[in-house]
Write a structure and sequence with these properties.
Blueprint lengths: L10 H16 L9 H20 L14
Helix pairs in contact: 1-2
């Protein structure tokens, strides 16, 4: 999260959600681990949403070489 730098818009809320989900996973996932799969899915989706807006800021001019015009 520190590597993301300043968080704007909904990003602070998403990062707090990601931390909360990670804490639940670290705590064992509740109900003898039965919630681990759904917690992992939710964490992946939350992180993807958090990083989604960051991908548009990529200044890599060569990043689309694999895509034909």
């Amino acid at each position: 999260m520190e590597q993301l730098g300043d968080l704007v818009g909904v990003e602070p809320s998403l990062s707090e959600m990601a931390y909360a989900l990670a804490r639940e996973i670290d705590a064992g996932g509740g109900e003898d681990g039965k919630q681990l799969p759904s917690l992992n899915r939710e964490l992946r989706q939350t992180l993807a949403q958090l990083l989604e807006g960051r991908a548009a800021d990529d200044d890599d001019d060569l990043g689309d070489l694999g895509s034909p015009d």
